[in-house]
Amino acid sequence: MKWRSQTLILLFFVLIRVHSGLCQDTIRTNIIIDSLENEIFYLTTKENKPIAYFSPVFTPVCVDGTCYPIKINLFWDLGGNYLKYSLDSNEILTKVEHLPFSNFDYGLLHRVIANNKSALANFTIYELTTEEESKVDGVTGATRPELQGTFVPDALYTSYTLWHLARKPKGEIEEYTTKQIFHSQFFQYVLTTPQLGAQELALRYLLNKKKTTAVVDILTPIIDSTDSQLTVKCIVLIPKSELVQSRELLANTYSRSNKAEVKEVILNRWNNEMRLSSLELDAIASQLGNQSVTFNKEQGMLAANDEWTESVYFILLEKINNCTNMMRREKIKHLLYSRESDFPRKFKRKLNKN
After folding, report:
1. pTM above 0.90?
2. Within 10 A of 130 (CB to CB), how many other CB atoms are there?
3. What average pLDDT does the segment 279-292 reach?
């Protein structure tokens, strides 16, 4: 994803500044993540714009009574989600019997830590192995079968320790972002900058701040002015009780959006949470075939609805006449003529003229 790549590039340059001792934009947060008092710092640009959080972690990985120290830098976005790790130039990570990580292992470790659904969440450090005779990180005991594929080979305890450290401060980071950043002039910057990772947190802060106002009234200006992942998150946050109130907003958004993900979230809400009216049916018909990603869903929703408006027939006929994709054209034609017995009189006259 492009925005995450941009974030990692930015962090690379921040790292250079941090490790060279030249960074003037590292702010203490007083967030301590473990008993060794590893602290999280807040990174900003020279203009004080927020970038991310990081912690230069020093932690032991204890294996069979022996502890091996790890020095590693962990990074989080403004929502407290793990971003990446880095090592100082003179640091390495090791596995069983002090064998160094390979390049593949370093890449795998990032994927291991980034996996929010990892089975590593389900066990304590004392439950990672069984009583079978085998060696894992130098420990007698076989790895639990549930953990296969969740760690760097021969580095189970290292993987486990870093996976949990990366998630431990999420709540405190969210609180710091809310109190220190959202209460500053940078709230709008965070809200409109997805790579910072705190858009949803910012939206919830905004809704809580104006909790006496209808949610849809707060979100409408954002939805009207955006066509991005922020739009998606706003649409998801509209309560079911306010969907009818937001009918015109969603129909207009569906018709003007060029983003498949925006259209998909609207289709899902229409399909699962409400009875379609002429407004939704006309919007779906007018966009049918414009994007391949949503075509099948649009076609299926129209086919499943028995209450087409007269305008839907005319819209589909125009689609057939103007569609350049032969396969979609034939599917739209099949959809239209599956309702031949229901053709309105005005529509029949139009067909006879053609």
Report:
1. no
2. 13
3. 95
